[in-house]
Amino acid sequence: MKKYEIILQDLERKIFDDSYPVNEMLPSENELAEQYEASRSTVRQALKILEENGLIQRRHGLGSIVISHEKLLFPISGLTSYKELQASMGFTSETEVIIFGELEVTAELAKITGFPENELALHILRRRKVDGKFSILDRDFFLKREAGMLDINHAKASTYEYLEGVLGLDIAYAKKEITIDFASEEDFDLLDLNPSDRHVVSVKSHVYLADNTLFQYTESRHQVDRFRFTEFARRQKR
Amino acid sequence: MKKYEIILQDLERKIFDDSYPVNEMLPSENELAEQYEASRSTVRQALKILEENGLIQRRHGLGSIVISHEKLLFPISGLTSYKELQASMGFTSETEVIIFGELEVTAELAKITGFPENELALHILRRRKVDGKFSILDRDFFLKREAGMLDINHAKASTYEYLEGVLGLDIAYAKKEITIDFASEEDFDLLDLNPSDRHVVSVKSHVYLADNTLFQYTESRHQVDRFRFTEFARRQKR
DNA sequence: GAGTGGTCTAGACCACCAC
DNA sequence: TGGTGGTCTAGACCACTCG
Prior knowledge:
By secondary structure, chain A is of the alpha+beta class. The first copy, chain A, contains nine helices and nine strands. In chain A, α1 crosses α3 and α2 (29-35) packs across α3. The two termini of chain A are 35 Å apart. Chain A binds a DNA duplex (19 and 19 nucleotides) through residues 2-4, 28-30, 38-42, 44-45, 47, 58-64.
């Protein structure tokens, strides 16, 4: 474990267990450097991450203050698999695999997914039942070339666990888009929508590997009244 | 101007004008350090920001590669005022101030805004006309104590320009939440909703100053078919 | 003026990747 | 094996805030 990670985790722990309470100052960078027997830059590397994650606010000439951090506030921002989300939010749900197949990328599909035409792709359609109602419909396309021996059992459990853990894929970043779309017939068929609903929330993502290959396109369709997105945003200084 | 900012801006420019084309490697950190007559750490500080902003992808042992960056892709993520959004996206719109008033924070309002009870707050309600239709309704509450002489003319133009530029407030971060809410009577009155619409997209934000004061609560209600949110997200390694 | 964080340097060593 | 980025150090100076 790297030194800055040790410092980071220790500070995180102390913030969450109130050793460093909200609205109180952390020790100064020099003090922390001494405490952890590290250089000031190493301490600063850890503090930088705490700041990005919305746990502290640093102020020139003053110090670092702890920000309020009700943990429930950060559920769905970032690039997180459904399984991880479920674990960190502490809810349970069932996943049903509806389609698990392979297909060739048509011109039309290439336009949507960004995959090269005629490539082979995995096509997975799953629905998630939360609190007794099917409220999320997930459609994934994976580049077959990268996804290897991904099979239906991984689709039932966690695709990312297999892709990262077993295949060692280095999933790097995603471009996400949220819009409100008209509910399709398929949505009505497969989700427990309210009869009066006309719309679903659609979250579309293009996911890239560290080597810059586009590797996954996914669309997640949510019942409108069960959708919630939260974000911690910092003001850009220019 | 700080050295790393100069390097950052120069690299940004070269990426956007295709001096460094998409999918090509940047020069190595050592080369850049030499070119800009800077230390490697200073170059790295600039590269870090390029990576956060989704312009490059760095790879251990290889180098930094330029990522595709259709600029239109990043409109509404982060903490950006409506005026700035409008400018960067290049669309025009009209803003109509419907309410500009002062009120005391009631217990009920305190719960929603997070402001202390009995404080004085500014209350501003505005609607935005885009492409000939009123499609966004913005309700702001500012802590009167901080917002000074903010007046109706600032509300017509840009509140942030006044608060940051004139008052010198240091706006630091926001906690945002997006949900789909039922359209209220007020929404129907003030927005050009489709008669069949039952919902609006609600974006609620608590905005904080650098000294950690909660300073603004704002809710932005959007016509569903005109709402779009995009985000660049990196995968967390843990 | 004393203490804080912000910037910058020069140099070292390590981990990763390609040839 | 050589080049790349990732981590870490010790030290310097600057810019900001407060008493």
